[in-house]
Design a protein that fits this description.
One of its GO terms (biological process) is U6 snRNA 3'-end processing. InterPro entries: Usb1. This is U6 snRNA phosphodiesterase. The protein is of the alpha+beta class. It is 28% helix and 19% strand. Strand 10 and strand 11 form a beta hairpin. The longest helix is centred in the last third of the chain and has 17 residues.
Amino acid sequence: MSAAPLVGYSSSGSEDESEDGRQTRPEDGSHRRGQSPLPRQRFPVPDSVLNMFPGTEEGPEDDSTKHGGRVRTFPHERGNWATHVYVPYEAKEEFLDLLDVLLPHAQTYVPRLVRMEAFHLSLSQSVVLRHHWILPFVQALKARMASFQRTFIGLEVTSGHAQFLDLVSEVDRVMEEFDLTTFYQDPSFHLSLAWCVGDARLQLEGQCLQELQAIVDGFEDAEVLLRVHIEQVRCKSGNKFFSMPLK
């Protein structure tokens, strides 16, 4: 629930309090005849007090100009928090070197492609959580993730697919507990490298993808490079992040 502004107000609409603490009614004649009552002064609320209430139920304001014109898949409503469960990927220098070769080549087919700022593999669709559901949802996720071992997986993902399906199965159970949409049937796990506004599949399919695959196959130590140690699962809800370490 949004924190309301703090203002000075009397303890009752019909009663005031005198300097010595006694409550007096305006009509009881307690003020001396011919003397106007002193006006009550409202003092400004110190910033230190206002800053005690930073948290609100309302999610962050949506501004498409801040993320390249991308539009939400569902409208923003007060108290609704877009939520996503995923495995983070910390890109190493060698991986970024490969991306520096791949992206310019792909941009010859689709010039508006933009490199991802961060990399991850999704374990859920984006769903909507009410603010008061966030902590119970994360606690349920942590309980489900507690038994999972860390593992190495290929970024394609060709190895480790079964382990990812197990993770998704547990995430789906939490989604069902909160009556939320589960992940896709027979999912193909992938790491997004770049994005663009609009549907560019026709330009990228066929020759472009074949050429990009050839670049990856010919890149030095590509097999070792495209392997990552999965140590944690994360949940992002609005502007809040929660981490669930794996064993």
